Amino acid sequence: MSGIRFDSVSVAYNGTTVLDSLDLTVEPGEVMALLGPSGSGKTTALRAVAGFVRPLSGRVLIGGRDVTALPPHKRGIGMVVQQYALFPHMRVEENVAFGLRAQKAPRAEIPARVAEALEMTGMGAYAKRYPRELSGGQQQRVAIARALAIRPGVLLLDEPLSALDAQLRSGMLTELARLHRELPEVSILYVTHDQVEALTLADRIAVMDRARLQDCGTPQQLYRAPRTEFTASFVGNANLLPVTVADGGAVFAGRPLALDPGRAAPGSTATLCVRPHLLGLGEGPNALRGTIAEVQWRGSTHRLYVDVDGHRVKADLPELRETPALGDEVTLHFEPRDAVLLSAGVSHA
C-alpha cells in the first residue's frame, strides 16, 4: 500500500511562492481532501505529487520512496481532472486502455483490465461508445476508470466534480464513496474548494490558504472544534463574534455567556464560534436578542439573519410555520457545549 508524504515542499512560479513548506502525510488507504479557495496552493500540491511541477525545495515521497525527481509515468499514480481529458477519437474502451498501453502492460491482460475498470465505475455497457455520445457524468466515470485501470497505489483527483451540475455531482459523490470502500488499499488525494465534497468523502481534510497548510484533521474535528477563524468559516458556516474571556465563560456586547473558556485567560479577547444550525429561536441559555434583518426560506429550513448589537448572526432553523417579519425583535440562544472559543486574530496558522 502506498501513502504520500510532503516533506517541507515549496513551489514557486516566477519568484512567487505558491506552496510554502508543506508538511503533510496521507496514510496508506486514506482519503485526504485538500480544501481551500482559489490560489491557496492545493492544486500545486497535487501537481507536485503527479510530477507536473518540480519543488523548489523539499521532497515528495510515495510509498516511502522519494519520487521528487521521477517523471510522472514512473510514479505509479492515477489522475482525474475536472475536464475529463478523454480522447474524442477513441472509443470508451480505448480511452481506458490508454494508460495500460503507455505502461506497456502485457497485451493479453489489457481487455480484462479495461472491463474490470469499466464495471467498477458502472460503465461496462458503454465500452464501444465515443465520448461525444456520453453525458458529463458518464465521461467523468470513464476518466476515473482509466485512472483505476493501471491499478495505482495513489489516485489524484483534481476538482473532479466541478464541471457537473448539482444532481450529477451528488450522484458522483455517492459513486466515489463506494469506490473508496471497494478499493481500501488506494490512497486518494482529493483537491476541492467544495466543503460538502470534502466533508462527505474525506477521512481527513487539509485546509489550505495563502500557499500554506492552515489546519488538518477529521471532518468532525474541523467542523466541531476548528483551531482558526479561517477553518471555522471555510469548513461549514459559522458565526464569529468578538468576546472577552471571563471566569466560566465570556462576555459579548456586555452580555455574559456560559461556555468553556478552555485555556484562555480571563480578560483576554477571543472569537466565539457557533454554527448557525446550533442556534435556537426563543428564550434559553446564552440568549442573544436582536432584530430580524432578513429571512430566507430554504425548503426544509429557514435562515434568519439577526442584527445583534451591530453584528449579523445567522440561524438555521427547521422550517417555521410562522416566520418573523423584518424588524421584529427575536431572541436566539445556544447551549454552552455548542460554542468554541478561538484565539482572537488567529485567522491563519
UniProtKB/TrEMBL annotation:
| A Pfam family recorded for this sequence | TOBE_2
ABC transporter domain segment(s) = 4-235
Per UniProt, the keywords (alphabetical) are: ATP-binding, Nucleotide-binding, Transport
What would be an example GO MF term here?
ABC-type quaternary ammonium compound transporting activity
PROSITE patterns given for it?
ABC_TRANSPORTER_1, ABC_TRANSPORTER_2
Which leading EC class covers this enzyme?
translocase
To which species is this protein native?
Streptomyces lavendulae subsp. lavendulae
- Family matches, as SMART domains: AAA
Q: Which gene encodes it?
A: phnT
Q: Can the keyword DNA damage be found in this entry's annotation?
A: no
Q: Where are the transmembrane segments?
A: none
Gene Ontology cellular-component terms for this entry are: ATP-binding cassette (ABC) transporter complex
Report the EC code(s) recorded for this entry.
7.6.2.9
What is this protein called in UniProt?
ABC-type quaternary amine transporter
